[in-house]
Design a protein that fits this description.
Elements (H helix, E strand, L loop, with lengths): L7 E6 L1 H4 L11 H13 L3 E6 L2 H5 L12 H20 L6 E6 L1 H4 L2 H16 L3 E6 L13 H11 L4 E6 L20 E2 L4 H6 L11 H13 L4 E6 L3 H8 L6 E3 L8 H8 L6 E4 L1 H9 L9 E5 L7 E5 L5 E6 L4 H11 L5 H7 L8 E3 L4
Parallel strand pairs: 1-2, 1-5, 2-4, 3-4, 5-7, 6-8, 9-11
Antiparallel strand pairs: 7-8, 9-10, 11-12, 12-13
The structure holds adenosine-5'-diphosphate and ligand VHF.
Length: about 375
Amino acid sequence: MNISNSRRIVIKIGSALIAPDQDGCRARYLLTIAQFIVRCRAMGKEVVLVSSGSVAAGSHLFPEDAKNSSVVLKKAMAAAGQTEMMATWDRFFDFPSAQILLTHGDLRDLERYNSIRETVFTLLEHGILPIINENDAVTTDELKVGDNDNLSAMVAAAADADVLLMCSDVDGLYDKNPNLHEDASLIPQVSEISEDIYAMAGCATSQVGTGGMKTKIEAAEKATSHGISTYIVNGFKESTFEKLLAGENPGTVFLPYDEPMHAQQHWMTHTASEQGEIIVEHGYAEDLKDHAEPLAAENISHVQGEFSVGDTVLVRTEKGERLAKATTNYSSCLLNFLAEQEQTSDNGHLQESIGPVISGQDIAMLEKS
Ligand SMILES: Nc1ncnc2c1ncn2[C@@H]1O[C@H](COP(=O)(O)OP(=O)(O)O)[C@@H](O)[C@H]1O
Ligand SMILES: N[C@@H](CCC(=O)OP(=O)(O)O)C(=O)O
């Protein structure tokens, strides 16, 4: 899938494009991108914008030495800069735009995840451009995504997009950092994201970037597993967007999985956070590596953490090998109770009435790490 034959596109814009001088938002590079968005919509495509830049836009309101500041000041910068960033985008369009601020806490809660989907779909139905950013002002270490590359991939999956465009300050993924190596070569296409691909990615070197190339590859892994064609392109070049509209690849394209994960499995694998752990016995662990099958209480060695029915849990071995993430049908309290009962009576009848601890279709196998 490319831009010319796509239906719904998520475009991620990095900080360096919004606030290139780290001195408030600048239209310098945004006009071309705004025109691209307008042309996509005129072609009948739906667009969702994930925009970084609130911290970079707000930093000039604080003392110069605050730029490498504490988390608290960065949150204040984000809150102040978000207003400026939204106003900057809104000035380019003669159609309305809408602000959506998210944390990972929102995305990993299935009820809130579905609520986000409903809001995005409703905005798109009414011709309103959703502009999404991480809610830096309220997020915490435990709740945050931390970079808009991964956020844009989660948004693309939630929005059922068919293309994710990550616009950066380089042409695409190179075999090594092009800002540090003159002999770096651009990689036009990635059909499988392997450890070798990750090994090429260094960190951000711009003054304002957060994610670097590693987070873009993580994002590509999330999006392609959901069947989304993912591009890393140079947002600073006008030619980038002309080529995209012509159906060409101006940067690096990550090809989508031939057999994408089902939506629920994708959400569990890439967005949900495990609320606890179920440690399984060796026999079940070995069977699970072949195929996902229901988990019964007798296959459980023990549980860790506290979780409720319907929560996402990690299924792992005694040695810590992460096997799968799954939706549990039993709370940790009930599983611990069953474990105590096992010594005294047969609780098989209880399981017959409730069913398996984990149903086969609620298991998302994890890639061997
Ligand atoms: N293998 C690589 N290919 C391309 N860029 C790389 C690579 N490794 C590290 N980088 C760095 O990643 C930067 C892009 O990430 P980042 O600064 O976070 O951009 P953005 O703000 O657009 O997300 C590039 O400017 C480059 O310095
Ligand atoms: N929520 C942050 C996003 C930070 C971020 O991911 O920046 P970048 O690596 O430039 O896309 C902000 O608006 O500054």
